[in-house]
Amino acid sequence: MIEFFTEPWDHVFMQRAFLVVLMSGVVCGVIGSHVALRGMAFIGDAVAHAVFPGIAIAFVLHTSLVVGGIVAGLITALSVAVFSQNRRLKEDTVIGVFFAAAFGLGIVVMSTAPGYGGSLESFLFGSVLGIGNGDVVTVAIAGAVLLLITGALHKEFVTVGLDRETAHSVGLPIFWLDMALYAMVTIAIVISIQAVGNILVLALLITPAACARLLTDRIGRMMLIAPLIGAFSGLVGLYLSYAFNLAAGGLIVLTATAVFIACWVFAPRHGLLKFAQVRKESHAHN
After folding, report:
1. What is the torsional sign of CA 122, 126, 130, 136?
2. Contact at 8 Å (CB) between 193 and 51?
3. Is residue 66 within 8 Å of 190, Cβ to Cβ?
4. What is the pLDDT of residues 51-100, one digit of tens each?
5. Smallest Cα–Cα separation from 240: which of 226, 261, 258?
6. Which residue in 48, 97, 96, 109 sits closest to 73, CA to CA?
7. Phi first, then psi: what are they for 168, rounded to 5°?
């Protein structure tokens, strides 16, 4: 049993993988809490599609994947903001058009690279075991910056998330706070894609936050619980991947999903069992 926990740490590639999934889990847990608070899960899915062409172009040009993904995500978000000014189209319709186009562009760009099939697969499904030292440093720096900004703007984000009218009446710059959150979601997704892949990254952003939402009514606690669940899911998924030689990204997401189901059933105030108990007591009183 002890060997199960210690053996993976004997390998340098596993040490790097553990560091990245821990950092990605923490960052996505914190940022995802704000996304869940606003009920904006679709933003995470949309951004995951939007960053893909930037990552693909950066890969082909052998430049920073993080920078490429961030630039592409922000350009696409700006395009959506501009085209959404036509009130004949709802914002979610414009998002569907541009983010599908962005993903298609990414696939086309990837097809220009020699041996793109394997590279495309690693982008879609993650390649956490192939992460280099430079990637670890990049994730650490970007993650630290995100956490610092989140801490600095925490009250403003929460105010806008809970009541936009109140936020507007007290003079908060709602548009710029929205743009800041979109940018932070973009960066969180870009640094996590290597761990779980483009297709699964939404789960790392949303599922831990959804678990925390079931476990507590307090925003401060939610911001602590979500990153802990994200980090826990990353560690357990990676251990299972090493032990059974299965896809790390998929196991990380499945672990987070298992935690969500457990929370949905057993959460002390909002779980299924508690709901059934309250209904039973209510019927007994009647």
Report:
1. positive
2. yes
3. yes
4. 888 888 888 888 877 788 888 888 877 777 677 666 676 767 777 787 78
5. 258
6. 48
7. -70, -40
Q: How many CB atoms lie within 10 A of CB 36?
A: 23
State the average pLDDT over residues 175-199: 83
Nearest 10 degrees: CA dihedral of 263, 250, 148, 47? -110
Instruction: Tell me the angle at which helices 174-196 and 154-162 cross, rounded to the nearest 10 degrees.
Output: 100
Q: Give burial (CB, 10 Å; 0-12/13-18/19+) of 101.
A: middle
Please choose, from the candidates 110, 266, 126, 91, the residue with its C-alpha nearest in 3D space to the C-alpha of residue 202. Answer: 126
- What six digits make up the tokens of 40? 């904006």
Mean pLDDT value across residues 260-268: 94
pLDDT recorded at residue 118: 61
Please tell me the distance from the alpha carbon of residue 196 to that of residue 203, in angstroms, as a whole number. Answer: 9
What CA–CA distances, in Å, run from 31 to 144, 188, 199, 227, 233?
12, 7, 18, 9, 16
Structure tokens at 216: 């507590």
Within a 10 A sphere around the Cβ of 11, how many other Cβ atoms? 12
pLDDT of residue 24: 92
| 39 Rama sector, left if φ>0, alpha if ψ -120 to 50, beta otherwise | left
Euclidean distance between CA atoms 153 and 156, whole angstroms? 5
**Three-state DSSP class for 197?**
coil
Smallest CA-to-CA distance from 103 within 47, 148, 36 is with 47
Kindly state the tokens that stand for 70.
């961030």
- Look at residue 8 in the predicted model and tell me its pLDDT: 83
Token pair in block for residue 121: 């697969």
